[in-house]
Amino acid sequence: MSVFPRPALVGLPGDRTAAREIASSAVTTLSAVLVLFALLAPKDLDGLGSEAFVRLPVEALLGVGLVLVLRDGARRIVAVSAGAVLGLLTVVKAIDIGFGLALNRRFDPVFDWGVLGNGVDLLGTSIGRAGAIASFLGLTLLAVVVIVLMGLATLRLSRVVVGRRTASTRVTAVLGVVWIGCAVSGAQLAPGQPFASRSAAAFAYEDLRQVRAGIRDREAFAAEVAADSFRDTPSSGLLNALRGKDVLFTFIESYGRVAVQDSDIAPKVGAVLDAGTARLKSAGYGSRSAFLTSPTTSAGSWLAHSTFQSGVWVDSQHRYDDFVKTDRFTLGGAFKRAGWQTVGVVPAHTEDWPEGKVYGYDRYYDSRTIGYHGPPFSYATMPDQFTLSAFQRAERAREHPPLMAEIDLVTSHWPWTPLPRLVDWTAVGDGSVYNPMPSQGKTPDEVFTDPAKVRGAYGDSIAYSLNSLISYVETYGDDDLVLVFLGDHQPNPIVAGAGADRDVPISVVTRDKAVLDKVAGWDWQDGLHPDRNAPVSRMDTFRDRFLTTFAH
């Protein structure tokens, strides 16, 4: 037994009460910050400045007013529901920012969920499939946490409002008058940032309009697909001016106007095009070039391919999904009806592609069937030179009927590094010659620390793809070759810049003067290098113009 008296536990109940009050205040403050952030956060990075958050959101005032007039049971349901909706809007805003950076457009909340899967595949080329899936699952969990926390935050704030009913009513009334005055006067702390904010409601309304417009667009698109003046054209009325020719439509990934005009990339790529024009001319080839406006930008190559082939404007995922279920008359279908053998070469595909049946290819090569045994180059499953070499060996090197082929070249796909080098065509083989090259190039991590390096890598990749094509024509071209090559879309805003147009270069190359004379009626410019005065037309006009021009 101690001989010393036990000290009194003085002040503990009060200390605990004070601690609880501090914690309660902190939770309330964090809840208010979270809700205000969700209400005021912009939908793009351009508006993400401190001034965006020094505004008065009308949605908060209306929410407080609603809470004050509801009974407890209804109040809790409305508070949690409103918070969940606000959390969902916050998630969609974050996705919008991502879409703006990667695709230079807004996220479609109805039809774009499948694009997120493509994003996982693309991320997998940089960090591996397992890492990409883990990242996606982590972001999904984060989105769920945001929605749950927002619901809890609005419930917390609703309790605070009801607990201080008189003060809440007075403050809301005063702020309501302030909001009306600022709205009428147009007061703003920064351009485009009115102090009287209603951005959350406007964002939700825009999304609802987008949903409604997307649903209505399906009917309009069905009508566009059905209206086809070439659908019933007999073989005798198709492509007679190209009889006996091998016609290759070749897409160069991300080959956009920025590669040839008004950028620090253009001099390098322009030099390749100018030299290529001279090289081909010395080999007897003529060429003409112009621009097409793509239905997409930054990504979504399949939208450009389907627009080009079908003659209808496929500018969204839901239009593409509907298109591949139709029997729309494509360029591939036209050549097939006219007696050509039709071939698709899509090295980016690593899985089955049942949608491709809409193009009517007789034969189809993907990454699994083209015979490549070399290394990938980031996203690119194989170098463009190998793709062209494999196509040549499989189709044009032997006796064959006239061929029509769409060939997709993917070396210039983001992230544009590391790059392969051109080798002697006789050394291409099964692609094992490329084995040392990926480790000899720069990694994406090295390049993406500097925007200038990113643009440089993009320019290098486009130069490689163009040189591959030019060298292919020099090596394997003949009097019966007609090559049409073009870009599918502009690169992402890191390279093309925010607000860039959607124009892509297109060129026709052939030795046959009669073919070039036909194209002369399009007013395209001589050579491979279109300048700022080159004509521009929408990509969906190409099919009809091509079929009309070469019908006779």
From TrEMBL:
SUPFAM superfamilies: Alkaline phosphatase-like (SSF53649)
Record keyword Transmembrane present: yes
Name of the molecule in the record: Sulfatase
Transmembrane parts of this sequence: 21-40, 52-70, 77-103, 132-155, 167-190
Domain Sulfatase N-terminal residue range list: 320-491
Keywords: Membrane, Transmembrane, Transmembrane helix
Pfam families found in the cross-reference section: Sulfatase
KW Transmembrane (keyword) present: yes
